[in-house]
Each structure stands twice: as structure tokens, then as C-alpha cells.
Design goal:
- The protein is an alpha/beta fold.
- It folds into three domains: about 170 residues, P-loop containing nucleotide triphosphate hydrolases (Rossmann fold), CATH 3.40.50; about 180 residues, Zinc Finger, Delta Prime, domain 3 (Up-down Bundle); about 120 residues, GMP Synthetase, Chain A, domain 3 (2-Layer Sandwich).
- Helices cover about 55% and strands about 10% of the residues.
- It is elongated, with a radius of gyration of 47 Å.
Length: about 575
């Protein structure tokens, strides 16, 4: 690079000198060139847009095309005296005025008086007012009449970043052109061209960082490149660029996001530590990470992401590789966590902790099964079940004789189908009841239940120690509630019911017994509990071995945790 003491910054040295060099504003260039070729050049133009996108440069190019000595053409020659004077800013017929410092009504009146005179050696007197929105209300009012009916030899070109601040009366008198933010690929292409002319060695990744620093402004990007070259010289490294500009290294973002999707909590925390060591602002890092996840989401959601994303080709290719094994739903769930964390960081004293918690939670998120996939599995399961035997409890329902019989059986759950009654002279000793039938003791308790439910519920928990004509001996566990309930009044009421049931006077005796002895007969309640447990275990075995249940466990990757009889 030149060692001249009169160094010209890149933004001025490589300022566009014709419409072809105006990057990213093709819609403006084409419209103005067509207007010039067709002779439909308006008397007032308004150029609006963000900083550094080419508004003032376009105004100068427009002034050169109108005053070029080779004739009014859609491209200036840039070699005639008129073009050279306008380029250097020394033309006596082209006035560039700063609206911020010349915003008074007196300044506009002086301008209005001067434009009456013909240009000295050009076709047009051209008035370029930059930041025109800074003019005062009185200055705008003083300009209105002249702006609506200017002399034929005068053209007005206004430039502003805030068109909404202009009065409607001014807007209605101008042809408005909205300048767009320059896209990242076009800024990178222009920076690459300039780096070649300056004999600078720099990678595409570094150029992307510089271009991203410009945020859509070509001038800001060139200023950032100037700063990088001043620091690095003609050989630029990626590390120097990221350190100098304070930008987040895209590789670090890719590594952290890969750790998040891979569930690598060690990698996540190591990445955040690296961010902190470099000195990045944690909130800025979180915003960059949100942008990175947003780019991944767009790539997984649309067919042509290059039309949506403002990314360099190399960056887009890298993101495509990373997004191959993740779904849009996975990205969206984690993006929601990051957006919430970023909003919390504005008032937090520990921004690093908030980022760490959000990323750890994102890394440990359980995978979600899409609803449609579950529906498809259920449909497949239903199809398989068409050719499968019915479940055991369904068979039991089908074989039940009638709803009425079911209701009768549920009324007395302790009762069992009774065998033919024994002869009157038969004496029954108290032995454990057979599993399938109903003893005299069972029928007696069922009879008591019908007469007095409270007495029957106490008898269900008693063991029949002895049962013979004229005597029933009942045992209750020591210190149990039921032993205390079997008082004299209880015995008297049971004796009265026993006399009715037996047809003869019957003595009722109550004895305390030790629970758990093998030779002690089971009470009806214990017997019912044992039978229910055996029945439930049998059901569990049948369910576990049923083909439909096994298929459901295979399809959903689940296990049966509970079996209940309806």
C-alpha cells in the first residue's frame, strides 16, 4: 500500500463514480438511467435510506450525468472538466449543502436568491441537500414555492435517513427513491475487489466478519476494513479480525450449537468459558447465537434459504451441513429458550449464568416425537389388533350371563356360589374354607350383612374358630379395632340373628387370637384380599403375555406399570 502522508480512506478512494459501481441499488440506477435516456428528468429528487448505502454518491453521479460535456447520458465520462470538478467537489454549479448546519430560514432564502442566476459553465445548477430532515419548519416553508416551480436550469436532490420527519408538502413535490441496505454477499464481493486492488491477503471468513460489522452499510464496511488493514497490514488473519472488531467468531457459534444439539454439556460450558475469556459481551453473544439458530431454522423450514438469508455462500454451506441431522422442531424449542434468556439478561447481574442455564437446559431437552408419528403408530397398532385374540377381561365380559347377574354378584363381593345345603344333623368344625365354595360361616355372615351392614362388616374380619349347633366361636386379632367393637351389645345382636339363621338358640363367643398363625382360619376379609391378589396377578401375567400389549410396548418403547380391572 502507498506510504503517502496524504492517505485517502477506502470509503472515499473507492466511492462509486458511475451507476455501474453503485452496489446493491440497481433499482435506483435503472430508474434514473431510464429517466435520463427518455428525457423525463424530474426537477426534485428525494433519496432515502440507511447510512452509507449510496445516497450522496448517487446524487453526485446524477449531477455528473446531467452536466457531462459529452452530453446528457446514463453514465458520466468522468474525464471531462465538469465530471472531474463535481468528483472533487469544486464545481461552481453544484452546491452540496449540509442540512444540519444550514437549517435556518435565512440560509434557504440565500439559496433561493442564488438559484435565479444561470449556471456559469454547465447545463444545470444542481442543489444537493444532505440530511434535509434537519431543516427547520420555517426553512421548509421558505423552500416550498421554489421547489414546486424552480427555474428550468435548477435541479434539487435531497438525501435523508429519516424521511418521516419531512413535511408532506415537501414529499409531494419530489420523486422519492428508497435505497436498500446492501446485502452481505454484495458487500463481500466489493470488499474482495478492493482487497485485490490494494494487494491485501485476507480470507472470505474475515471479509464476512468485516461486512457483518457494516450491518448493510457499504461505507461502514469500508471503514471497518480500513481499521483492519491499519492493524494487520497487507496480511490479515481471522483471529486478528475477530479480536479487533469485537465480533463473535462464527466457528465458536457453530461449535456451541453443535454441543447443544449433541447434548454435550461439557462442550457447552467450555464454549461459554471461551466467550468470556475473549471478552465478548454476553448479551451480544446471546443475540448472535439467536441469529445463528434462526438461520438454522430457516434452512430447515424453506426450500430456498439463500433467498431469505443474508449470508455468504461459504457460511450458508456450513449451516447446511450442521442442519442435516436436526429438525425444525428441535431448533424452535431451543430458540425459544434463548430468546427468553436474552430478554432476562437486560436486568440481570449475572448474564453469564443466565446463558449457561439456558444452554444447559437446551442441551438436556428430551427429544419430542411428532404427533403425526404417534398417530401413525396407533393406526398400525389398531390394524395389527384386528387379527389378535381379545384381551382376557373382554372375554370375561362377553361370557357374563347378564348385567343383572353382574349387579347381584357385586352387591356381596365376599359371597361365593353356594353348594347344596348340608343335612340338619351335620356338625361343621372351623377349618379354612375351600377356595371355590361358600361355607356355613360365609352364608351366616352374608345373612347378617343383609340384616345389619355394620354387624356384618365386623364379622367379615373375624376368624370362625368353632361353628356347631348352638355355638359359634369367633376370633379377632389382639388389640384390633374389631375386637374392641365386639362388646356385649354386639354379641347380643349377633346371637339374636344367629338364632334366626340357625333356627335354634345359639351362643356367640369372642376370643382374642394372634394374627398370622398357620392353623388359624382366614377371615372372610383376608380370604377376599388373598383371592383378589391372586386374580390380579393372574391378570398381570395374561396382560404381559398378550400379543397386542407386547406390540404396543415395542412400538412405543414403553412398559406396563399398572393393571386394573374395570
Amino acid at each position: 500500500m502507498s506510504n503517502d502522508t496524504h492517505y485517502e480512506v477506502l470509503a472515499r478512494k473507492y466511492r462509486p463514480q458511475n451507476f455501474a459501481e453503485l452496489a446493491g441499488q440497481e433499482h435506483v440506477s435503472r430508474t434514473l438511467q431510464n429517466a435520463i435516456d427518455s428525457g423525463r428528468v424530474a426537477h426534485a429528487f428525494l433519496f432515502t435510506g440507511a447510512r452509507g448505502v449510496g445516497k450522496t454518491s448517487t446524487a453526485r453521479i446524477m449531477a455528473k450525468t446531467l452536466n457531462c460535456e459529452k452530453g446528457v447520458t446514463h453514465e458520466p465520462c468522468n474525464v471531462c472538466p465538469q465530471c472531474i470538478e463535481i468528483t472533487k467537489g469544486t464545481s461552481t454549479d453544484v452546491f452540496e449543502i449540509d442540512g444540519a448546519s444550514n437549517n435556518g430560514v435565512d440560509d434557504v432564502r440565500d439559496l433561493r436568491d442564488n438559484i435565479k442566476y444561470l449556471p456559469s459553465h454547465s447545463r444545470y445548477r444542481i442543489i444537493i441537500i444532505d440530511e434535509v430532515h434537519m431543516l427547520s419548519t420555517n426553512a421548509f416553508n421558505a423552500l416550498l414555492k421554489t421547489l414546486e416551480e424552480p427555474p428550468e436550469h435548477v435541479k434539487f436532490i435531497f438525501a435523508t435517513t429519516e424521511p418521516h420527519k419531512l413535511p408532506v408538502t415537501i414529499l409531494s413535490r419530489c420523486q422519492r427513491f428508497d435505497f436498500k441496505r446492501v446485502t452481505l454477499p454484495k458487500i463481500i464481493a466489493r470488499l474482495r475487489e478492493i482487497a485485490g486492488k490494494e494487494s491485501v491477503t485476507i480470507s472470505d471468513a474475515s471479509l464476512a466478519l468485516v461486512a457483518r460489522k457494516g450491518d448493510g452499510s457499504m461505507r461502514d464496511s469500508l471503514t471497518a476494513l480500513d481499521q483492519v488493514l491499519a492493524f494487520c497490514g497487507n496480511t490479515v488473519s481471522d483471529e486478528d479480525v475477530s479480536t479487533l472488531l469485537g465480533a463473535i467468531d462464527r466457528r465458536l457459534l457453530a461449535d456451541i450449537s453443535a454441543a447443544v444439539f449433541g447434548g454435550d454439556t461439557q462442550g457447552v460450558l467450555a464454549g461459554i468459558k471461551q466467550v468470556d475469556l475473549v471478552g465478548y459481551n454476553m448479551r451480544q453473544f446471546c443475540q448472535e447465537l439467536i441469529e445463528h439458530f434462526r438461520n438454522l431454522l430457516v434452512i430447515r423450514s424453506v426450500k430456498k434459504p439463500e433467498e431469505i438469508l443474508d449470508l455468504a455462500a461459504a457460511e450458508l454451506e456450513e449451516l447446511n451441513k450442521q442442519s442435516l441431522h436436526i429438525t425444525a422442531l428441535d431448533i424452535q424449542r431451543r430458540l425459544t429458550l434463548l430468546i427468553k434468556a436474552e430478554s432476562e439478561m437486560a436486568y440481570a447481574s449475572f448474564p453469564r449464568l443466565i446463558v449457561e442455564m439456558a444452554l444447559l437446559k437446551a442441551a438436556l431437552l428430551a427429544p419430542m416425537v411428532p404427533v403425526q408419528e404417534l398417530i401413525d403408530k396407533i393406526k398400525a397398532l389398531e390394524t395389527a389388533a384386528v387379527h389378535t385374540p381379545t384381551l382376557p377381561w373382554e372375554t370375561a365380559r362377553t361370557a357374563a350371563p347378564s348385567t343383572t347377574q353382574h349387579a347381584e354378584q357385586r352387591t356381596a363381593p365376599a359371597a361365593r356360589p353356594a353348594p347344596p345345603p348340608p343335612a340338619a344333623s351335620t356338625t361343621t368344625t372351623a377349618q379354612p374354607a375351600p377356595t371355590g365354595g361358600q361355607t356355613d360361616w360365609g352364608r351366616f355372615v352374608a345373612f347378617v350383612n343383609e340384616q345389619d351392614r355394620m354387624l356384618g362388616s365386623v364379622l367379615e374380619h373375624g376368624s370362625p374358630l368353632k361353628q356347631e349347633k348352638g355355638l359359634i366361636e369367633i376370633g379377632f386379632p389382639v388389640a384390633s379395632y374389631y375386637l374392641n367393637a365386639a362388646d356385649a351389645e354386639f354379641i347380643a345382636e349377633v346371637q339374636a340373628l344367629a338364632a334366626t339363621f340357625m333356627g335354634t338358640s345359639t351362643t356367640i363367643r369372642v376370643k382374642p387370637i394372634e394374627a398370622g398363625f398357620a392353623d388359624t382360619p382366614l377371615s372372610l376379609a383376608e380370604k377376599k384380599k388373598r383371592d383378589d391378589e391372586q386374580h390380579l396377578n393372574e391378570l398381570k401375567r395374561e396382560v404381559a403375555n398378550h400379543p397386542v400389549v407386547k406390540e404396543a410396548e415395542r412400538v412405543f418403547g414403553s412398559t406396563v406399570t399398572e393393571v386394573r380391572e374395570l
